[in-house]
Specification:
Blueprint (H helix, E strand, L loop, with lengths): L7 E7 L6 H12 L5 E7 L16 E4 L11 H11 L3 E5 H5 L2 H6 L4 E6 L12 H10 L5 E4 L2 H9 L8 E3 L30 E6 L8 H14 L7 E6 L5 H10 L6 E5 L4 H7 L2 E4 L8 H8 L4 E4 L4 H4 L6 E4 L4 H13 L1 H18 L2 H12 L5
Parallel strand pairs: 1-2, 1-4, 2-3, 4-5, 5-6, 6-7, 8-9, 8-11, 9-10, 11-12, 12-13
């Protein structure tokens, strides 16, 4: 009998391994790719935090390189030596910050070098930076295959970077529609929440509080909503899940308007499905997006969506059917969309049900994992 093939070794290389969409995809792949066929190492240029606990496999090695501010060039020799020691069959890098590692993978003779684009950099929210385009073109010969998570990113790789169709795949992020599902019974508030589901109409968002996610726009829209509709002040409440540098700005916006007590800044949470189930409406105010994992999770929980019409959001949200798309940085438009759902419970329910159905039909996690499985297994061939 032929000897059993050793599991393929994948090194997932990121800038930071912390709560976030692309990191969540890596966790999903590690937990769901067949354990007998794959083993994994996660390498972070900077830090690795408690988010690693979401990885269910006990055999995964985590390596943090603790890169200081600035270019990674001083770490190149160390990274090359590390890749030579690990000897992976697949190097899986994510976003621009990790792209510079791909030539080191080539030098270390990693057979398959897959680079995934999950969204735009905060300093280049629409992919227009000439410098970043030149960087991506310079690294293009060292990438075996590209993955993009939305059509606009795939178009960018084709048009601006010159990646041919045979070397790129569009693989939308997936969502666990069993874990993220509507509540089966009346919902109680999660621990620490000062509001009462059912009594209060809860508007919420989930994500790291950082510039590209633009949660301060939701805070401003909430202020605009209650200024235009003071009758909603008795029941409208705001929930932010996530931590990050925008927390103080969000707090200040609400405090200046005298509405701080109507908002809960929950910080990072491990019970996101339970938080989503107690909401009445989910908002994604981002300046740009790939395919947002939290957006898909909210849809799977049966929530109507208000999202900015940027990046991959229009591919995920069907305006007028599963949610409402509004222009980015238009606080008044966002406030009007929120008021429309607050005033029409039947419409909100219909859109939430349609969102759940769409998440199940188009964004099932098993389909995403299968496509990555097919791509990664090319290293064995």
């Amino acid at each position: 009998m032929p000897a059993e093939r050793a599991p393929l070794h994948i090194v997932h290389f990121v800038y930071r391994f912390s709560i976030g969409g692309l990191e969540n995809v890596i966790v999903q792949l590690i937990n769901r790719l067949p354990a007998e066929r794959y083993r994994h190492t996660v390498v972070s240029l900077t830090t690795i935090d408690d988010f690693r606990q979401r990885v269910e496999r006990p055999d995964v090695e985590f390596i943090a390189l603790d890169k200081p501010v600035g270019h990674a060039i001083p770490l190149y020799r160390r990274i090359h030596t590390l890749l030579r020691r690990l000897r992976p069959q697949v190097l899986h890098t994510c976003n621009l910050a990790a792209l510079e590692i791909v030539p080191l993978g080539w030098l270390a003779r990693v057979p398959l070098r897959v680079h995934a684009e999950h969204g735009w950099d905060a300093h280049d929210p629409h992919g227009q930076s000439v410098r970043y385009r030149r960087l991506r073109r310079a690294y293009r010969p060292f990438v075996s295959h590209y993955v993009s998570v939305s059509q606009d990113l795939d178009d960018y790789l084709a048009r601006a970077i010159g990646v041919p169709a045979r070397r790129r795949s569009l693989i939308a992020n997936g969502v666990d529609t069993d874990r993220f599902a509507p509540a089966a019974a009346p919902v109680a508030a999660v621990a620490g929440c000062p509001f009462t589901p059912g009594q209060h109409w809860l508007i919420g968002t989930v994500g790291r509080l950082q510039t590209v996610k633009n949660q301060q726009a939701l805070a401003r829209a909430f202020v605009a909503l209650l200024q235009a509709r003071p009758d909603l002040a008795d029941r409208a409440r705001l929930v932010f899940v996530g931590d990050g540098p925008l927390a103080a700005e969000i707090d200040a916006i609400l405090t200046r308007a005298g509405l701080r007590e109507l908002a809960w800044l929950a910080g990072a949470r491990s019970d996101v499905p339970e938080v989503l189930r107690m909401l009445d409406c989910f908002v994604l105010p981002s300046l740009t997006e790939g395919t947002s994992c939290t957006l898909q999770e909210a849809m799977a929980c049966g929530l109507p969506i208000v999202a900015t019409a940027v990046g991959g959001n229009p591919e995920v949200v069907t305006d007028g059917a599963t949610g409402s798309l509004v222009p980015s940085e238009d606080d008044a438009a966002m406030a009007r969309a929120l008021a429309a759902y607050a005033d029409d419970a039947d419409r909100a329910r219909r859109h939430g049900q349609a969102a759940r159905s769409q998440a199940q039909a188009r964004y099932g996690l098993s389909a995403m994992v299968q496509r990555y499985d097919t791509l990664f297994s090319g290293a064995a061939a």
